[in-house]
Q: What sequence folds into this?
C-alpha cells in the first residue's frame, strides 16, 4: 500500500471519505457491458483452451455440515485427476474445505501441486469476535492450508464502520503467515454496486491477496456485473499502488458457458495478465463436471452419460 493510502486507514472518517470518494458505478452501464461481453462466442481451439484454463482455475469446494473425511478424500482425488480415463485433463487449482478437514485434504493431496484452501472467520456469517476469527484462521493454517477464504463483517460494513472491517482483514492477514488471503465480500448482501466497489478497495487496502464475491450461501452470488466491478477494482488498484490482487467469483457458476463468460470478462476488463490461476479462480462445486463433459464432447463428438463423472 502506498503511503497516501496508508494514511487513509488512520481513522473511520478518513476511510469513509476515501471510499465514498471513489467514482460511482453506473448500474445500467455495468449491467449492459457485462451482458454484452457475455454474448461473445468462442469456438474450436480457442474454446478447448478456455475449457482447460477454466479447469485449472477451479477451487473444487465442499462446505456442508455433512462433510466427511471420505468425501474430502474423494474430492481431492478428483482434483488431481478430474477424469481418470484421460490423463491430459489438467488438475484444478485448489480444494476448499472447512478448517477441521484441512489436515485430511493436505494428506490426500500430498505433493500434487493442488493447493488447500479453507474458509475461516465464522464462515459464512462472519458474526463472531476477532479473537475467534483469528483462532479459526490459525487452526486452518496450522493444519497446512495454503489459502484462507475469510468473510467480512457485512453488518459493520453496511453500518459504515469501515475501520472495524479494515482492522479485521489486516489481523486475519497477519494470522495467515505465508498463506494467501481471499476476502469474501458477500456481494449479494451489499445492496449496491457502489458498495461492491468500496468493499473491494477496502479489502485490497487491508492486505487481501484475492477479493471473492460470495460464500455461495447467499443469492445473488457471482453475477457477471459484480465480477466486472471487482475486476475493474483490481485493475485500478494495480495502477494506483503497483500491487496486483486476484479475483474469485463463487456461487452460481455451474456451466461451461458460465465459466467462459467469466474468462471473457477477465480478458476484456482486467486484461490477459489475470488469465492465470494465480490471479483468477472459479469457486464451484458442480462446474467441473460440466467442463469435463464439454471437453469430452469436443474431443469425441459425443457427450458422456450423466453418470460418467463422479458427483461432488
A:
Amino acid at each position: 500500500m502506498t503511503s497516501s493510502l496508508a494514511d487513509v486507514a488512520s481513522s473511520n472518517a478518513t476511510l469513509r471519505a476515501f471510499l465514498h470518494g471513489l467514482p460511482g458505478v453506473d448500474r445500467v452501464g455495468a449491467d449492459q457491458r457485462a451482458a454484452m461481453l457475455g454474448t461473445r462466442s468462442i469456438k474450436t481451439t480457442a474454446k478447448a483452451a478456455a475449457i482447460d484454463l477454466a479447469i485449472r482455475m477451479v477451487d473444487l469446494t465442499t462446505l456442508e455440515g455433512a462433510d466427511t473425511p471420505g468425501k474430502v478424500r474423494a474430492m481431492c482425488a478428483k482434483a488431481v485427476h478430474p477424469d481418470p480415463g484421460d490423463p491430459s485433463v489438467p488438475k484444478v487449482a485448489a480444494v476448499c474445505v472447512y478448517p477441521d478437514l484441512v489436515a485430511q485434504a493436505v494428506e490426500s493431496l500430498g505433493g500434487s501441486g493442488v493447493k488447500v484452501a479453507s474458509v475461516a472467520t465464522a464462515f459464512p456469517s462472519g458474526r463472531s469476535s476477532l479473537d475467534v476469527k483469528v483462532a479459526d484462521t490459525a487452526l486452518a493454517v496450522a493444519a497446512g492450508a495454503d489459502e484462507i477464504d475469510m468473510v467480512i463483517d457485512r453488518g459493520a460494513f453496511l453500518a459504515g464502520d469501515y475501520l472495524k472491517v479494515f482492522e479485521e482483514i489486516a489481523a486475519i492477514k497477519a494470522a495467515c503467515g505465508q498463506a494467501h488471503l481471499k476476502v469474501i465480500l458477500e456481494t449479494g448482501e451489499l445492496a449496491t454496486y457502489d458498495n461492491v466497489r468500496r468493499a473491494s478497495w477496502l479489502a485490497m487496502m487491508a492486505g487481501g491477496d484475492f477479493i471473492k464475491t460470495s460464500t455461495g450461501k447467499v443469492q445473488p452470488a457471482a453475477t457477471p456485473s459484480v465480477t466486472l466491478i471487482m475486476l475493474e477494482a483490481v485493475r485500478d488498484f494495480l495502477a494506483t499502488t503497483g500491487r496486483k490482487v486476484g479475483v474469485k467469483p463463487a456461487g452460481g457458476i455451474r456451466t461451461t458457458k458460465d465459466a467462459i463468460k467469466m474468462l471473457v470478462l477477465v480478458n476484456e476488463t482486467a486484461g490477459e495478465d489475470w488469465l492465470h490461476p494465480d490471479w483468477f479462480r472459479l469457486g464451484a462445486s458442480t462446474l467441473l463436471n460440466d467442463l469435463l463433459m464439454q471437453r469430452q464432447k469436443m474431443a469425441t463428438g459425443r457427450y458422456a452419460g450423466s453418470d460418467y463423472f463422479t458427483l461432488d
About this structure: The beta strands are 58-61, 94-97, 115-120, 147-151, 180-184, 210-212, 246-248, 282-284. DSSP finds 13 helices and eight strands in the chain. The two ends are 39 Å apart (CA to CA).
